[in-house]
Amino acid sequence: MEPAAGITERLVERLSCAARMTILTGAGVSHESGVPTFRGEDGLWGKYRAEELATWRAFEADPELVWRWYDYRRQLIADVNPNPAHLAIARLESACDSVVLVTQNVDGLHARAGSTAPVELHGNIWRARCTREQTTLHLPDNPLSEIPPLCPKCGSLLRPDVVWFGEPLPNDAYERADEAACSCDAMLVVGTSAMVRPAASLPLVAKHNGALVVEVNVGLTPISALIDATLVGKAGDVLPELVDRILEHTGGSKSPSSAEAAETTSR
Ligand code: APR
What we know:
Largest sheet: 6 strands, parallel
Number of strands: 9
Strand content: 15-25%
Bound molecules: adenosine-5-diphosphoribose
Number of helices: 12
């Protein structure tokens, strides 16, 4: 099969020899599952003004409207499945003990594909948080039986456990993501417009710390000129092939010892 655009043997070698790899994903990795992105031609924001829905002020003004939007998105997502890109990422994680997955997505599709510990920078649409006690809980019913939902413990309003515009990222998640960006030897940046900070800064943090940074996207982004390579193509096409070739190169499991072993045997 013709290699996907840009997956050269040299690139595979360099990615295979990375002792620590971080993968950063955005809405583009879920696009082939049928989940609309935020800024593409069919993007969600195209239909709604972000300020109307994804801000604390909008929620305070009309919690029912905001919850109806999130319930609509949850129903969209409940009917879709992880696509080959999610599955390829999960395969790489299970074969390599040194891959950290950081996602901006709140759809939960990485976990459904088998990723065991995605760092969820922007929260998770399947969780809610009590506006009084700040405790989080899994939202069982889809669609919601009551809108807006109330905390079963104290009766206060629940909010979606996602990060809204103007809100800080969850401390723990951002610290883990920053550590993963600072300490990796290679970063794959998959399906993000790299326009929303601080997530969009992570590839440049990795680059600044000496990592090989490769993006997978259907088009160029503001970071394309600042990183090592852009594999132009759909994540669902590029990632399965890239992961196959990395695992072939490292003999099926990628960890520092096996990567070195693969190096010596290939000499
Ligand atoms: N394969 C790879 N890339 C794709 C695909 C695909 N099949 N389809 C779309 N893309 C790319 C687009 O070219 C775009 O660069 O995915 C990116 C999606 O960008 P956005 O819609 O801006 O999504 P994202 O980068 O995740 O947005 C970041 O902004 O609104 C906030 O909280 C929201 O987490 C989100 C953040």
